[in-house]
Amino acid sequence: MAFSGLGRSFVRRTSLLNMAHAFKSQARVVKRSVLPELGSFRFCSQETIRAREAASSANIGSPTIFSKIIDRSIPAEILHEDDQCLAFRDIEPQSPVHFLVIPKKIIPGISYAEDCDQQLLGHLMLTAKKVAEAENLVKGYRVVINNGVEGSQSVYHLHIHVMGGRQMEWPPG
Predict the structure, then answer these.
(1) Is residue 123, in this structure, part of any structural domain at all?
(2) Cβ count within 10 A of residue 100
(3) Cβ–Cβ < 8 Å for 91, 155
(4) What is the DSSP letter of 26?
(5) What is the pLDDT along the chain (173 residues), one digit of tens a residue?
(6) Are 80 and 130 in contact (CB under 8 A)?
(7) Are 98 and 90 in contact (CB under 8 A)?
(8) Quick check: 139 and 107 in contact, CB under 8 A?
(9) In CATH, what number is assigned to the domain containing residue 137?
(10) By residue range, what is the domain housing residue 73?
(11) Disulfide-capable partner of 95 in 24, 134, 157, 163 (CB 3.0 to 4.6 Å)?
(12) Looking at the 3D structure of the chain, how many domains does it have?
């Protein structure tokens, strides 16, 4: 009996592995056969709901909450300002460090940027880098631009999210 010395822990571990494999197999079957029949029924995150609401009520090119931060009619914790852009802390941070970089020029989203915005777009990215350095994000950070309803854009004024201070996961969404 070659297996008699293996004991209960081996049998228990083997049983757990077999159960895990069976569960993964069943999950694949459910994903392939049941979920497609649900059609358009899906659970939506708060982010998705906000993006859909923002897209349906967006008045492209009109002032946004970010315009009010630029003109100081609403407060924000400003980290950087120059003649082209503003960086400030996100009011709903998704990481220990989370700030936004926005152009002072109203560009509704990255898909609205034009060739004449090339210098400004580069300036926004370099500003993101400089503020990240000032925030001591030496181990790394994530840079995100949400665009349009399927990109979960909730404010139609171009903005760059910079997030760091913890290990980021992949894929993000």
Answers:
(1) yes
(2) 23
(3) no
(4) H
(5) 454 554 554 444 445 445 544 444 444 444 444 444 444 445 567 766 766 765 566 677 678 999 999 999 999 999 999 999 999 999 999 999 999 999 999 999 999 999 999 999 999 999 999 999 999 999 999 999 999 999 999 999 999 999 999 999 998 86
(6) yes
(7) yes
(8) no
(9) 3.30.428.10
(10) 46-164
(11) 163
(12) 1
State how beta strands 97-103 and 141-144 pair: unpaired
Q: How far apart are CA 79 and CA 43, in angstroms?
A: 36
Please, which residues have CB within 8 angstroms of residue 110's CB and are 6 or more apart in sequence? 145, 147, 158
The answer to the question of residue 132 being in a domain is yes
CA distances in angstroms from 46 to 5, 50, 77, listed in the order given? 54, 6, 24
Could you tell me if residue 133 is inside a domain?
yes
CB distance 137 to 87 below 8 Å: no
Catalytic residue flag (residue 98): no
Tell me the C-alpha distance between 100 and 78, whole Å: 10
40 in any annotated domain: no
- For residue 104 the two structure tokens come to 């002072």
